[in-house]
Design goal:
single chain; about 550 residues; alpha+beta; eight-stranded antiparallel β-sheet; five-stranded mixed β-sheet; 19 helices; about 45% helix; disordered N terminus; disordered C terminus; Folliculin/SMCR8_longin; lysosome
Length: about 550
């Protein structure tokens, strides 16, 4: 198999006291050959019915054996008669082959060099932890070195490493958090098991006392080293099925790591909202993969959504509001009509400034729909919501909070100018039945808005003025207003990016920042609100964008103004 077909390869390496760095166990992915037109309907050689039994990965013995040179027990993983392991992914036909060494000479030299470097020169401080190295010719390596307790070894521990080798540098770098999390689980399992064996051996025969009382002689020292070197990893962990377990773990890691990184077709240039939504979706998928890996299951097929689908699911929380009976707000204009112009402007002002918006009432469906409309005013990265709760949640956890009617508001919150409370009071003549019959929300509920913030909201921010102009124009349909709101948010997010680059990344002073604000059109009437809005919206910038800016600055990029 050529190297360029290999997605990645995982290997367990060991530093032997007699033979130096050695590869103990290796798992590689073998992709099924692409059939030619003449072979379109032909079965794949060796693809037997038994290979497709069960779901996900199925295991069978490999019939071939690997030639071995002279090595001690510490350098050998599988016995000479052991055929190795093969796992077959029934969904894709990919086979995961595990043995002591790779089958192809090209891969053998690549893994051998990665093994030597990971246990000699390419180590992190403390000699235990992750590191990345490699080049285009010999491949790129993610390596995690660690120690295993051994009562007979020098220093009572032996040195191991797990390496993942791939020719794609970006693939490995993007997989760093995923690999680190799951490899640490494997390493911690090995270390904890070996520690129990170490403690039990020390209780029977404490080696430290034996060594202190023994007579040291240069003549017997080589023989002592030779005797202590030949301990295998299954012996150190007392795990009889260790290699089968590592094969399953490495096979799942290759499968899950490959499936989590896929290409996405974006509808035009990605907005900040799209980038944040993709980051959140990736984090959720990694959490799901983590749970599935811990339970020993296969990786679940992942559904990658388009930009419009991601944004719709964010606003409507995958249709959760539809499960509640009773009336609901249909649009931002509808919410404005129900609350009234003055109260809506006050509520929208608090939303845009980043203050905590609390809705308290007995109808969770109505509260959920109100939050759905209000969330459309903010970038996705600025939204932290707890839709309905039986207890108060602090502002640092959520800026949208729905509460049941009997939940008290803490004094420090009710007296704060950074929060607004909307009490949704049910009227006696209203009922859910009448709402289902088409009665208006105002005939069912009364909305009481309270806040200690005495700052007038009639001047700004500029964005709020433009939003109200669009909402008050009855000639514009709801869909047109929605697209207008998206354009306004994108316009102000571009201003946020400029201000972030200028003030946070370049570290300019107050005077220069004021000039930039004037250039952005954020000064004049409502200037204080505009600046406050820009600073709050900075928290909604995606990690991708911030990382790109910081990388560019560290790479020597100079600001355009210099």
């Amino acid at each position: 198999m050529p190297i360029h077909v290999m997605n990645a390869l995982v290997a367990l390496c060991h530093f032997c006291e007699l033979h130096g760095p050695r590869t103990l166990f290796c798992t590689e992915a073998l992709h099924p050959p692409s059939p030619t037109p003449s072979q379109a309907g032909a079965p794949i050689p060796g693809d037997r019915e038994s290979d497709r039994e069960g779901e996900g990965l199925t295991m069978r013995a490999n019939s071939s054996a690997t030639q071995r040179g002279d090595m001690c027990e510490g350098c050998r993983s599988l016995p000479a008669s052991h055929p190795g392991f093969v796992s077959v992914d029934s969904e894709t036909g990919i086979r995961f082959l595990s043995h002591q060494h790779p089958r192809q000479p090209q891969l053998f030299s690549v893994v051998r060099q990665a093994c030597v470097r990971s246990l000699s020169c390419e180590v992190c401080p403390g000699r235990e932890g992750p590191i990345f190295f490699g080049d285009e010719q010999h491949g790129f390596v993610f390596s995690h070195t660690f120690f295993i307790k051994d009562s007979l070894a020098r220093g009572f521990q032996r040195w191991y490493s797990i390496v993942m080798v791939a020719m794609d540098r970006i693939y490995l770098i993007n997989s760093w958090p995923f690999l680190l999390r799951h490899l640490r689980l494997t390493i911690q399992s090995l270390q904890s098991t070996a520690l129990k064996v170490f403690d039990s051996e020390q209780c029977v025969c404490p080696q430290r006392a034996v060594r202190m009382n023994s007579v040291f002689s240069p003549a017997v020292f080589p023989h002592q080293r030779s005797g202590n070197a030949a301990r295998s990893l299954p012996s150190l962990t007392q795990h009889t099925n260790l290699w089968a377990s590592l094969h399953s773990s490495f096979s799942w890691l290759l499968k899950a790591c490959g499936s989590r990184l896929t290409e996405k077709l974006l509808e035009g240039a990605p907005t900040e909202d799209t980038l944040v939504l993709i980051e959140r979706q990736t984090e959720q998928e990694e959490e799901m993969s983590c749970w599935e890996g811990a339970e020993g299951g296969g990786s679940r097929p992942q559904c990658h959504q388009s930009e419009s689908e991601l944004y719709r699911d964010f606003l409507f929380d995958e249709g959760k509001a539809e499960g509640y009976p009773g009336p609901k707000f249909r649009s931002l204009r509808h919410l404005r009509q129900v609350l009234g112009t003055t109260d809506f402007r006050q509520l929208a002002w608090h939303v845009l400034m980043g203050n905590q918006v609390i809705l308290r009432g007995a109808d969770p469906g109505l509260i959920h729909s109100a939050f759905t409309m209000l969330k459309a005013l903010l970038p996705v990265g600025c939204v932290r919501s707890v839709t309905y709760s039986a207890q108060y949640e602090e502002a640092y956890r959520c800026n949208f909070l729905g509460l049941s009617p009997d939940v008290p508001i803490p004094t420090h919150v009710s007296s704060s100018e950074f929060s607004v409370l909307v009490d949704v009071v049910s009227l006696e003549r209203g009922s859910l039945y009448s709402a289902a019959c088409g009665e208006d929300i105002l005939s069912l509920y009364q909305f009481n808005i309270s806040s200690t913030n005495s700052q007038p909201t009639d001047k700004g921010p500029t964005l709020l003025n433009k939003i109200e102009v669009a909402l008050s124009n009855e000639n514009l349909s709801v869909d047109v207003v929605s697209h207008c709101l998206l354009c306004l948010k994108e316009e102000w997010m571009n201003k946020v990016k400029v201000l972030f680059k200028f003030s946070k990344v370049d570290g300019r002073g107050r005077e220069d920042t004021q000039k930039v604000l004037t250039l952005l059109g954020a000064t004049g009437p409502g200037e204080e609100d505009n600046v406050r809005l820009l600073k709050f919206w900075m928290t909604g910038l995606s990690k991708t964008y911030k990382s790109h800016l910081m990388t560019a600055v560290r790479g020597g990029e100079r600001p355009l103004s210099q």
